[in-house]
Amino acid sequence: MTAPLVYITGASSGIGQALAMRYHAAGYRLALVARRAAEIEAWCRAQGFDAQRWAVYAADVRDVESIVTAGKACVAQQGVPDVVIANAGISVGIDTAQYADLEVMRATFETNNLGMAATFHPFIDPMRARGSGVLVGIASVAAIRGLPGHGAYCASKAAVVSYCESLRGELRPSGVRVVTIAPGYIDTPLTRGNRYSMPFLLSAETFAERAFRAISAGASYRVIPWQMGIVTKLLRVLPNWLFDRALAGRARKKRQGE
Question: Are 188 and 140 in contact (CB under 8 A)?
């Protein structure tokens, strides 16, 4: 088929599923990746999607061989994607004083960072050879400053921003674009357990629409919603003493098992 192809990890719920719906509406073929492959397949059938316009690949982004194999299978079965969205991610609070939370930090970096690089890996050479393609990394406004109880998540998302910026410079001469999307608070299963206020909260569908527009418009970096973009700019210049005072007493992210 000649329709463009989008490859999305973490597609079984939340942002990933909303992005899949938006790209399908735009005429794209779908390559959807998650550990729970059966759930995505059932969802695609429930939407009435044409079976020739989608395929599902079971993979765990923490397992490099697993996610690389999924990417290669996509190329073999559906061709080189036009857009690859590394969306799979986890967000769990940690307390560094708790020994068990060191493993939570490892899992966070393996998922949010190593998993992103492994997601992109199978497509870089084919996209370079073709001279086109878009690699999209989903970061977070949590990348801007460290939040109490969010050490693993904030650090991992800051790493996403830097990694995508580095990759963008590396691939610029090849015609392959790298886009960083930094969501604010989005109503998904990942955020519904939060025990603090979430200003400018967006539905996953609204986020997907705005992300689709930003990626299509050729943006290299976009904070969604724009209001959070203003907040992040202010946070960047806030003196440490004032930032620390503002965050004093803020509820911490729930730890694993809480």
Answer: no
Check if 153 is active-site. yes
- Rounded to an integer, the average pLDDT of 173-197 is 80
> Where in the chain are the domains?
5-247
Cβ-proximal residues to 232 (8 Å cutoff; 6+ apart), any chain: 141, 144, 182, 223
pLDDT at 196 > cutoff 60: no
Distance from CA of residue 1 to its chain's centroid? 27
Those residues with Cβ within 8 angstroms of residue 74's Cβ, 6 or more apart along the chain or in another chain: 7, 31, 55, 57, 81, 122
DSSP code, position 93: B
Q: Please state which CATH number belongs to domain 5-247.
A: 3.40.50.720
* Element at 100 (helix H, strand E): helix 100-109
Q: How many whole angstroms separate alpha carbon 127 and alpha carbon 104?
A: 34
Element (H, E) at 107: helix 100-109
Residue 163 corresponds to which tokens in the numbers above? 């990694």
Max distance between CA atoms of the chain, in angstroms, equals 57
Q: How far apart are CA 86 and CA 140, in angstroms?
A: 13
Please give the mean pLDDT across all residues of the chain.
91
Q: pTM of the full predicted structure?
A: 0.91
Side chain identity at residue 143, one-letter code: A
Tokens of 229: 């973009």
Catalytic residue among 28, 153, 163, 185: 153
